[in-house]
Amino acid sequence: MRLLILSFYYRPDLSAGSFRATALVEALQARAPAGTRIDVLTTLPNRYSTFTQDAAEVEPLASGEIRRIPLPAHRSDIRGQSRAFLHFAREVSAHVRDRHYDLVFATSSRLMTAALGARIAQRMRARLYLDIRDIFVDTITEILSGPASLAARLLFSPIESWTLRRADRVNLVSPGFAPYFRERYGDRDFAAFTNGIDAEFLAAAPAIVTRASQTGATGASQPGIATILYAGNIGEGQGLHEILPPLAAALRGRARFIVIGDGGRRELLQSEIARSGVDSVELRPPVPRTELIAAYHAADVLLLHLGRHAAFEKVLPSKLFEYAALGKPLLAGVAGYAARFVREEITNAAVFTPCDAAAAVTAFESLRLEDRPRPEFVARFLRSNIAAAMADDVLAVAARA
User: What is the pLDDT of residues 144-153, one digit of tens each?
Assistant: First the structure.
């Protein structure tokens, strides 16, 4: 049996797709029948221009290899990402031209990696397993406006339809995606393997309840001022430029904010902070996970926020899982499925309407500033268990070939 894994991001890159694909490949190696070959085609780390990490272009696996394709320098805007993907697609197509696989697995948030996987699988007459991490057509047409939005829908809707209808199995990372896809592609075979909690965060999870004054987070240098941390992408989807300046102003003297990350809206966030005159927001570049966990521990509250677009009401952010595992109070500006998930699954978490600073203040005031273990959540959403179950599902589809 020969398996091809396509993921635009892979370790040691920093992204949800990277962590997800890496865990799946590790599970496949552990569970695949003897003689199975697993090849991974991905990119050299490129998620953020402000974060670099060395990685081999070719890395051997026990039964295959990881091949990382170098990309030309690019910005995080739509044009830069498009150029980077076209380069990736050309290199992938050339590499597999004279090869054959029984199954192609593609994990995709922006649709095009899924479409690339569909094209390769069709040419090889291989099985196709898609891992869908976002509803790209929904998102891009809401973020854009006017003629650009219509043009995007006319371009990408047929690509989505062509891609999905060639899949033998489609995993939806968020159960909130199900109504959209089942309405359009109800004859497809769907699965529901979510994101999960990685081992690094299990080791860092609290064992007992600890109040903020005991953690050293606020008590050492700024008594009575809570540290609220956001870590992750700073893009249009996160809407930090809309919520952080007014929220920082509203909590002046009560909270300071640390933002760790990068993305296409970082400069806009910086300008909005400067324009608002707040001095309690600190922007830091992306860091490796070991440093990130230390920053989590030093915070009192962890912040998650999505923009107010209706498309975001269907998503389940991967960040929720690592935030929740660490036992910190969670302040979540989300709506729709994510809001329901937070309310039902995560203790000591407060939800507020995205981009509503007044509602965010009320939600913040409802939190208990203490670290509290969440053992039931951790047990349910272990990444290793989810990846193992998904690997079995992938192998079952491959065995039909």
Answer: 889 999 999 9
Burial readout 334-368 (b: 16 or more C-beta within 10 A, e: otherwise): bbbbbbbbbeebbebbbbbebbbbebbbebbeebe
Collect all residues with Cβ–Cβ distance below 8 Å to 65 and sequence separation of at least 6. 39, 40, 58, 59
Residue 221 shares a structural domain with residue 154: no
- Count of domains observed in the chain: 2
- Same domain, yes or no: 97 and 214: no
131 and 208 part of one domain:
no
Q: Which domain holds residue 335?
A: 199-380
351, 357, 361, 366: CA torsion to nearest 10: -10
Distance separating alpha carbons of residues 51 and 250, to the nearest angstrom: 32
| Amino acid type, 321 | F
pLDDT for 76 equals 65
Domain match, 104 and 186 both: yes
Count of all residues that appear for the chain in the document: 401
For 78-136, how does the pLDDT look when each residue is reduced to its tens digit (9 = 90+)?
788 899 999 999 999 999 999 999 999 999 999 999 999 999 999 999 999 999 999 99
- Other beta carbons less than 10 A from residue 380's beta carbon: 14
Q: Please give the Cα distance from 315 to 138 (Å, whole number).
A: 11
| Cβ 391 vs Cβ 24: under 8 Å | yes
Parallel, antiparallel, or unpaired for β 2-7 and 210-211?
unpaired
- Residue 58, token pair as written in the block: 């070719």
Q: Is the pLDDT of residue 216 over 60?
A: no
Among candidates 236, 244, 230, which has minimal Cα distance to 356? 244
The Cα 130–Cα 172 span in angstroms is 9
Kindly report the CATH number assigned to the domain that includes residue 270.
Answer: 3.40.50.2000
What's the pLDDT score for residue 49? 58
How do residues 185-199 score in pLDDT, each as one tens digit? 999 999 999 999 999
Do 217 and 300 lie in a common domain?
yes
